[in-house]
UniProtKB/TrEMBL annotation:
Protein name: 2-dehydro-3-deoxyphosphogluconate aldolase / (4S)-4-hydroxy-2-oxoglutarate aldolase
Family matches, as PANTHER family: 2-DEHYDRO-3-DEOXY-6-PHOSPHOGALACTONATE ALDOLASE-RELATED, 2-KETO-3-DEOXY-6-PHOSPHOGLUCONATE ALDOLASE
Species per Swiss-Prot/TrEMBL record: Pedobacter suwonensis
An MF annotation (GO) of this entry: lyase activity
Keywords of this entry: Carbohydrate metabolism, Lyase
Family: Belongs to the KHG/KDPG aldolase family.
Subunit architecture: Homotrimer.
Pathway field: Carbohydrate acid metabolism
Amino acid sequence: MISNKHKILDAILEQGMLPLFYQDSESGSIEILRTLYKAGVRVFEYTNRGKSALSNFKKLKEIRDAEMPDLYLGIGTIKTPADANAFIEAGTDFIVAPIVNPAVAEIANKIGMLWVPGCMTPTEISVAQEHKAMLIKIFPANILGPEFISSIKDLFAGQLFMPTGGVEINADNLKTWFKAGVCAVGMGSKLISKDVMSKGLYDELFDNTQLALELIKQSK
């Protein structure tokens, strides 16, 4: 299946946030996906960070197809061509990576799929651009900070950046990132915390997701 990468990119920009998480539990993963969707999320990244990632992803795709046809479901933490191929076969809509692997870019580009690589340096950003990255994840954002985006964005005019790692559900924090020039933020453990996962705090997740989406709307 060829994804429409422009539509997915637009959905990420419109939402202003890409929620992401991994959990071993299949039922827990399903509940979190349902909660995010109910709170208004329409594009989402499951991360390939544990032994159950592929089987859980296949199940999430089934649930998505049955209950949430307007949700884009992507996979993150894709570092190798083997991982990319496995999740493309499982039906992912897009691919996110913590690194720039040109071999993964080639696989995504061949089928017209959105590939979002993670970069930490200007050289990595340049390599990502050479391999047609429309959106670049700045990772780890808590180490680099908004000043990094402010400093490099003129070097890469027109490039879309999304920080991931340490972005907070806080008006000042979000405003600082958007003012620095990002187009969206990746939201992992600050939104989908260990407590939410281990204790099943889905009402709290629902409220925090709605709050994050609202604060992002005000920050853009």
